[in-house]
């Protein structure tokens, strides 16, 4: 039973190292330094390959940080907010770090002044900021609207609010339009902007269609 319980972690670690091997073998050399140094690899090409790997493995939810020997285990915002699978994310980050030759030592990377992380792991939100939008969708009485459908302009995929009416989306800095719809409510459309390395708080109030629906029923 013990060996079987370790199997998922072993498979994850093997996949991590396989992906890293694929990336390293695919990136062209700059001709500077040795294979063990970051300057040995073409940074732009490495970034492009990592994006391709991320697209091919969308369920493998990790963040790659070029040039930093540290493993992220979650990201949301500056205020630490536990996710239901927080223990799993911490475990995967810890196993990956301890399997690395020196990541688990928690030493800072060159040049001087770079941050160090205990055991080679950290909460990504405590390390650097993400830009995007977040907020709560409510009705006119201030009650949260769960399972409301939201869609950001120039994005094909839609998403839904939580049971508490919450939503969040990581976005690049820029100007966007948010469309919000839910059964029994009028659709709302709001324009908003996302600044550099900050989250825009955008709460949306939906207007009920009840009065109109009741009027239509009386007419019939």
Automatic annotation (TrEMBL):
Q: Which GO terms describe its biological process?
A: peptide metabolic process; protein processing
Q: Which domain of life is it from?
A: Eukaryota
Q: Does the keyword Signal apply?
A: yes
Signal sequence, renumbered to the chain = 1-26
- Molecular function GO terms recorded: metallocarboxypeptidase activity
Q: Which GO terms describe its cellular component?
A: extracellular space
Query: Could you tell me the keywords of this UniProt record?
Result: Signal
Protein name in UniProt = Carboxypeptidase D-like
